[in-house]
Known about the structure:
This protein has 243 residues and is mostly beta strands. 6% of the residues lie in helices and 49% in strands. It has helices at 74-81, 107-113, and strands at residues 11-13, 16-17, 24-28, 37-42, 51-57, 60-68, 84-89, 95-100, 115-128, 134-137, 143-148, 157-170, 173-179, 185-190, 195-197, 209-211, 221-237, 241-242. The strands form three sheets. Strands 1, 2, 3, 6, 7, 8, 9 and 18 form an eight-stranded antiparallel beta sheet that branches. Strands 10, 11, 12, 13, 14, 15, 16 and 17 form an eight-stranded antiparallel beta sheet that branches. A hairpin with an 8-residue loop joins β4 and β5 (51-57). The model has no long low-confidence stretch (mean pLDDT 92).
Amino acid sequence: MIINHSIRPYIILNGVNSNSIKGLLISELPPISKPAIRVQQEEIDGRDGDIITPLGYSAYDKVITIGLTYEYVIDDIIEFFNSSGKVVFSNEPEKYYFYSIYNQIDFERLIRFKKAEVTLHVQPFKFSDTENEITYNISGSNELAIRNNGNIYSRPTITITGSGDINLFINGSQLLTIDLEATSQTIIIDSEAMNAYNSDKTTLLNRLVRGDYDNIRLKVGNNLISFTGNVSKVVIDNYSRWI
Length: 243
C-alpha cells in the first residue's frame, strides 16, 4: 500500500471525516505501532530467570494533535470528539480500530493557542475497512471457504439463517451447537463480543448456543467453515484482523 503524504491528514470517526468539520485540522497522527502483550511474571526460588505467561494484547492510547483554521465552530468540533466506535487514521486508510475517548480535551487551549491533543483509547486489533461481509446462499454444499488476510487469528461474526439443531465447525473442529426454531430463524454469532443476538441485535440469544465462543477463530490464510443441519444462508464479517 502506498500512502500519499501530500494529502492533508485526517481521521474518520464512525464514518465522519474530520475534513468535513469546519475549521478542524488534524496536525499530527499517531505512529503505526504494535500493541503490547500483557504478561504474568513469576519468580521461583531456586530457579534461574522467571516464568512468563502471556495474557493477551493490551488496549492502548493513540494521541492526535489537532488545530484550528478560520471560521471554526467549536461546538461542532466538541460534538465530533464526543463519540466512540470505529476510527480510521489517514496513515492507515484501509484499516479501522475500535476506540473510546475517556481523557479530557482542553478545548480552551485549542481556542487560545490553536492547538490541543486528543487521546483515543483503542482496542489492540485492527480490521479491514475495505473488505465487505460475504453472503452464502446455501444450496447443497455445507462447506464454506473463507480467507483471513490479516496477520493474526480473527474472531469473525457469523450470521446463520436456518432451523432446528445446527452444528458449526471451523477447520474440522466442532465448536458450537445452535438450537434454532423449527421454522426459519436468524442468529448472529459475534465471537469478538462472545455473544449471540437476534437479527437486529436487540435480543441476546446465548441460551440457544452450546459451546465455546473463545475457540471461534480463523487462522491467518485459508479456513473452512462447515455445518450440519438445515441452513439456508450464512453471512460472515470481520474475518480478517491485524495487530
